[in-house]
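Posting here for the record, re: BIS(adenosine)-5'-pentaphosphate.
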Amino acid sequence: MNIILLGPPGAGKGTQAARLEKERGMVQLSTGDMLRAAVKAGTPVGLKVKAVMEAGELVSDAIVSALIGERLDGDAANGAIFDGYPRTQAQAEALDVLLRERNRSLDHVIELEVDEAALVDRVTGRFTCAQCGTGYHDRYKLPVVSGVCDVCGSAEFKRRPDDNAETVRTRMSEYRAKTAPILPFYEALGIVQRIDGMAAMDKVSGEIASILDRD
Ligand code: AP5
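Prediction output follows.
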């Protein structure tokens, strides 16, 4: 199964993709995670995209589509959750070609509908375990034991450099200007499903599960 999770920064794409990966063995393809890994490793791609990401702007279409292509021939050969990709019309068209070349197609585009005013709070409160990457939030999801990761027991946590209020606003306007307009492309294929991304995380997961289980 190949699905896209679509929504602005903080909509919950990464949270839900990680749950699907854990519960259903699906493969999460987050271009944001791939780019952050490239920045951390100091690869040529990482050096090129670092400043663009820190400003909250979009990285070039060619770079992200190449990253996705590599994964479709690797660990995501049997299906994928696209998280944060595609983000422009050119990327939507590139994904179409990448899938067709592999005799694959999209099953669902799931749009997480959210109230933008609440998203700055979601994003600026986010932090992750520095060891295993488990996601937390200052108010909505704290570790059970304060300062200790629920999953791996590490006491080290980190925050993303682009998770400040000013950059989040730029990321949102990029979403409105370049990503939201790709929805009609998928609506024409009849594969868009909309769910309430403002509901509690478990409720959102349940709605996604019921879409996937219909197949
Ligand atoms: P990327 O990493 O993709 O960031 P994003 O799209 O801005 O999305 P986020 O990761 O911020 O949000 P999310 O929807 O995953 O929310 P999450 O689940 O964490 O991209 C970063 C940058 O990389 C871009 O700005 C760009 O520069 C570049 N880039 C990446 N892909 C690109 C592409 N294709 N083309 C060009 N450039 C690209 O949730 C957020 C918080 O809210 C968490 O703390 C979570 O615990 C909490 N939360 C989640 N769901 C709920 C809920 N239902 N109720 C309460 N709290 C919730």
